[in-house]
Structure formats: structure tokens, C-alpha cells
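Dear all,

This email documents one entry for the complex benchmark we are building for the journal club exercise. For each entry we list the sequence lines for every component of the assembly. Then comes the predicted three-dimensional structure of the complex as a C-alpha cell string, followed by one or two observations. Please use this as the template for your own entries, and keep the labels exactly as they appear.
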Amino acid sequence: MERMIIKNISKEFKKEKYSKPILKTILNLNLLKFKKESTKVLRDISFKINSNEIVGLIGKNGSGKSTLLRIISGIYKQDKGKIKINGKIISMINLYTGLQDMLTMKENIYLLGILFGLSKKEIKNRIKEIIKFSELEEYVNTKLYKFSNGMLQRIAFSTAIYCNPKILLLDEVFEIGDEKFRKKSIRKMKQLVKEGISIILVSHDLEMIEKYCNKVIWIEDGVIKEEGNPKDTIKKYLTVHGE
Amino acid sequence: MNQKIKKFWDLSFYLAKSGFKLRNEGSYLGIVWYLLNPILFFCLLFIVFSQSLGSEIENYAIYLFIGIIMFNYFQSITIESTELIKNNRGLFKSINFSKSAFILGNTLKFLFSHLLEFLVLILFASIIKENISNVLTYPLILIFFTLFTLGISLLLSSICIFFVDTKNIWIFISKLIWFGTPIFYRIKEGTLIYKVNLLNPLYYFIEITREIIIYNRLPNLQIISIGILFSISTLILGLIIFEKLKYKIMERI
């Protein structure tokens, strides 16, 4: 079953990315100048993902991986191309940065669950499993500002996997945190894939990508440089970017 | 469709609830501040103006209190909305969820505290007036006033991403509105400030509230219609602009 079809996706960002003083804009009459320099972040990206598949996305920093994930999840809109998605998407793109420091772990799980599209009742039914998976039972009523980044990532990941995703977008999720939880998360990920979901995994850990992905897509400067089986694609990637 | 609306509402309400809790975090007096703030400010203005600007105004205490709480409600929501998206950029760039629900959540957060002010208004009215049944019509006015404020919030939260000094300009405009709107004084028909206020949406909402609550009479249909028109048109405009710019906003933050 095809979970996702990406066809000729292109995206460019205006170079002037940050907001500017309104008075300067008016005085310079910049409002009338619509043409600005832009950078092409993604060009003609096409690929397919089936159910029961983990696809690795590799590439150096700034190659367009996170932008692609944001387009797939609907945060950004592509300038060109089409995306066909079959099922609910849950994205984890530096998610722990979006959690609320002054709320407790339990409140944050509710907040994330609702943001991921679950009802309060559904979260209530799953919260025990989420907390158990995160292994942070003793911190349930602790405010998040006391948590390490690894602990925040645990909360975000545990909540995400219990929110009925059909497609999971994981951006450098396993880069933070301890080895034991990482292994446990990977086991859970493999179990979910067996049950029919699809995962796009962005990581700089090429060993992990090679070990767990069915297919790897290498993005270089916004274009797909290589797509294929993990071993060959990573080998080619390493010949360009070294070990 | 119904489920979508329910999820939108659930999200807004939960954001409002947690936002309300966060506002009181670390404060010894907690929600008491929501009552103390307008009451203290009211006392100050009442002492200063009751013998001068307010001397000829019937029931000046309620007149002033209505003006203060309605203006505060509007100002708190709109000023906060100028930084709402920027302050939550991590969340916005991680998950795709309804951004307008986030703005509504902020509005509801202030609505909770405004309802406490409304309780004080009931208390005030029960001391000063014999019949307080008119005060209970305020929630209906508040619905339209909130829709108007939500519209302004949507506009401001989008614009401030593109122009960095929107917040400072809005704070200045808020001050102009504070002095320009008859909150602690009354305006006479035909004067320049009256003509200016005909373009001021806040004037209509405050005027409708005062007419009903203080003077026990229904404002003329024209004032009511203009108030409703302001609220609906501002909300529609806010939604259109916010929806149109939402992807650009995400790219800019």
C-alpha cells in the first residue's frame, strides 16, 4: 500500500527571512518591491513510501531535509509539485523545543496529544502507557524546566507513538538521550512498522540508518542525489562526504 | 466536520486553560490579581476624576468600571497576540496544527480572567443599583466584543511577523485608544472627539454595554448594528489575512 507519493516538490525561500522595521519599509517604499532574491531549498523532489517501510533521509546540514519534512507535514507549502498522503502524519522536528517549560509532564502530554489531534478522552485512555514508555513515572507532576533535553525528547517521542500515526516523521530524534531508551524506541519503531505504519527517519547516525531503513534517500543541496538500498546509498554518500 | 470543529475547540480550550495556569504561575496572589488590578486602577481613577470629569455622569462608578474592564480585556489580548507566534516558534515549526486555534486559545485565556471582572461588575451593580438583571445581558455583548478582539488579534499576530516593530506601534495606538475612547469621561454629540469615536469600534461596544447596564435602555438600532458589523467584519478580515499568510508566517519565524 502506498502511504505517500511525493511528485516534483520544489521550494524556495526569500533571502530576506527576518522581519524588519515597519517605518524603514515604508520610508524605503519596499512595499512596492515584490521581487526579492531567493534561495532554492528543494528542487524536483520525487519519491514514494509504502506502508511497513522505514525510509532514511540523509544529507549534510542545510541540504533541505527538515524543510522537506515540514512540507510533508503541512507546516510549509511547496511552491511546485504534489503530495498525496494516505493516513495521519505525526511530525517530530525538534519537538522538545515546543514543550511548555512551566507546565508539568502530565500537562504537556495532554497538550501534545491534543496538538497531535487526539481528544482528551483518548489521551486519558493512553496516558498510562505513554508515561510507562517514557520511564519517567516519578516526574509526572514535575514541571518541565527541571528536565534535561533527553527527558523532553522521551516525552515527545512517547506521546507521538501513542497518537495513532500512520506516518511518522522523525528528525534527529535519537540523537539525544541515553542508549537504553534509544534501543527501546527503535524496537517500538520496528513494531509499529510491522503493524503497517511508515516512517521517515532523518539522522546523521549512518550506522542506524543502514541497519533499520528499507530505503535511503540522499539529499544534496535540495535535490535527490541518490535513492536506493541503504548500504549502496550510504557508501556513495561517504565517498563524497568522507567518514 | 463536527469532529473537526470539536477538535479545534478542544485545542483552543486546552491552550487557554494551560495559558491561564501559566499566567498565575509563581504568583502568591494568583487569580486574585485579576480582581485586584482593575479594582485598584478603578479606585485611582475614581478618586482623580469623580469630582471633575465624572461629576455629571450618572452612576459614574459603574460607568468607569465598565470602560476600564472592557478596555483592559481588549488591550491585554491584542498586545499579547503581537508576540504569540514568535514566542512559540518551536511548537509551530514542529507540528502542523491549527494556528488560528492557537490565537483563539490566547483570546479565551483572557476571557477567563475577564469573567472574574464580570463578577466584580455584578457585585458593583448589586451595591449601586436596585435591579441588576440588565448586567446579565453583558455576556451577549461580550460574544461580539470577543469576536472583534479575536479579529484584531489574528491581524496583529500575522503582521508582527513581517514588521518587527508592530508591537511598539500597537502599544502606542492602544494608548491613543485609551485616551480617545470615553472610558473615564463623557463625550458630547457634535464635538470633534465624538466624530472621531464614530470610527472607533471600542466606543460602540462600551456604549452599548453602558446603555443597557447603567441606563436600563436598549441603544438605538444603528449603534447595535455597527457594533455587530465591526465584530463580524473584523473577524472575517482577520481570518482571511491569517489564513492567506499562514505558510509565509511559518517560513519567517
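Observations: Chain A touches chain B at residues 13-14, 17-23, 25, 70, 73-77, 89-95, 97-100, 102-103, 107, 110-112, 114-117, 119-120 (CB under 8 Å). The helical segments of chain A are 22-27, 65-73, 105-115, 120-134, 149-161, 179-194, 206-212, 230-241.
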